[in-house]
């Protein structure tokens, strides 16, 4: 497959993901209604579905059709969504807006938001445990183990902890790197690995996908840091300048905007070069690296 | 195996579980330290390990040695522990004490307690994804699916939601039954099913284990309701009378203490009769039903 039109690729994969996500939760109105409304409110809040699309693009690179990869793609988005709900809670970042809408706890209250997050995290593993036709159960178990590790106390959650602890402290590059490679990078890396593992990628191919994911994940977070300074509410859907206001440890805070931009460009170039080495089936991954660098929100 | 001495059975299985739980988390002091301290603080807070022991006892009934069942036993305890941490948070029950010690958020703060709960829930699936020798990967996947469903928005979390919504409302037996069979019953039922599934129980055996778990789980929660009224801090490790003070939906609130006690007795008798029908290997399950009925804390 050769993809010249990234937008049409994104649109078609987004639709597959959207339909699969729709089926990945109990139907709207399921008892008890409050929790299911809250889960759906946050899951269908207009996210770009970048992570699930990365799962599909990685698996397609390794020769799989997208359909058997959809449970893993959904699982990653469910985990991403739960992490946003919990991050926004008053005990954490205390954010009122996310993607231009009120945050989950502002609409449903703190208790339901907390439980909705818990339920989305739990549902990720229920969804991932369904074995798609043609994928060996042992591969699915490997994917579950990798996703849990990536999302856990030495992965995404570990990054969140250090991010909180670093607030208001002088930011060293070492700390910022830990935060970015864990809080955001860990799950993005897992997207690439899950796609590869479930598609039966060989060791070398999987290693390249992993390194692509590491470069892309860090680039993604650095551009996020930059957008927080330069972006506006309309495009970002949340207040800008919050990182500086909170004394968050970011790349621009450590190295300045210019250097941060330069590093993001280098990381994306490296990701693109890794994608090129995977051949024409990795064209979506190649194009996605440019998309991440140039995104506006 | 015939067990006449429940205490020695519980002690030996508790030790196996304890050792396995010790290995189920990153080592103490792992980076970032705050989250790992909090996870360990709550996981090793003197719990009775009833749920993991039920996983082992169910699996042993179906002919398995305890060792291959330990990942599932740990996973269930990790989930139980996360649910306690989140239940105790200010946004939920706002409890200061649990098992006679300060609750997780009182020691580590709300943000770390929230994340420690998230991390324990996540780790449950990391642990369960390790396939023990001799157990087919497909069975492990089935166990993961059942555990996630039991702990999710239509299981344990669903029960928690309805429990909160029912506070201060007139309690109907229908609502109380939903709360009890979901908030507590769902995970206890899953213990029995996971043990059975991983041990390769046949359909009929699994069905009996399931019904045993349903009876035991409801009996357990009713005795909990009764202990909240009659127990004291020394034995319970938390303040008694809180259910009444909060207007919680309980069996005694619905039916009175006498009737509640009678129903708990009947449920345990039914559980014992189901255990009897599983033969001598189910002696621990038989004795555990008596233990649950007569426990003092």
Structure description:
Chains A, B: Its EC number is 2.5.1.10. Chains A, B: One of its GO terms (biological process) is terpenoid biosynthetic process. Chains A, B: Its cofactor is Mg(2+). Chains A, B: GO terms for molecular function: (2E,6E)-farnesyl diphosphate synthase activity; metal ion binding. Two copies of one chain form a homodimer. Chain A is mainly alpha-helical. The mean pLDDT of chain A is 94. In chain A, strand 1 and strand 2 (101-102) form a beta hairpin. The radius of gyration of chain A is 18 Å and the shape is globular. Chain A has a single domain (6-294), classed as Farnesyl Diphosphate Synthase (Orthogonal Bundle), CATH 1.10.600.10. Chain A is built from 15 helices and two strands. Chain A has helices at residues 6-24, 33-43, 50-61, 70-88, 104-108, 110-128, 137-151, 156-166, 173-198, 203-230, 233-236, 242-246, 251-255, 257-276, 283-294, and strands at residues 97-98, 101-102. In chain A, strands 1-2 form a two-stranded antiparallel ribbon. Chains A and B meet through helix 2, helix 6, helix 7 and helix 8 of A and helix 2, helix 6, helix 7 and helix 8 of B.
Classify the helix fraction of chain A into a percent range. over 70%
Strand content of chain A: under 5%
* SSE order of chain A, one letter for each helix or strand: HHHHEEHHHHHHHHHHH
CATH class call of chain A: Mainly Alpha
Keywords (chains A, B): Isoprene biosynthesis, Magnesium, Metal-binding, Transferase
Pfam families (chains A, B): polyprenyl_synt (PF00348)
GO molecular function, one term (chains A, B): metal ion binding
Protein name (chains A, B): Farnesyl diphosphate synthase
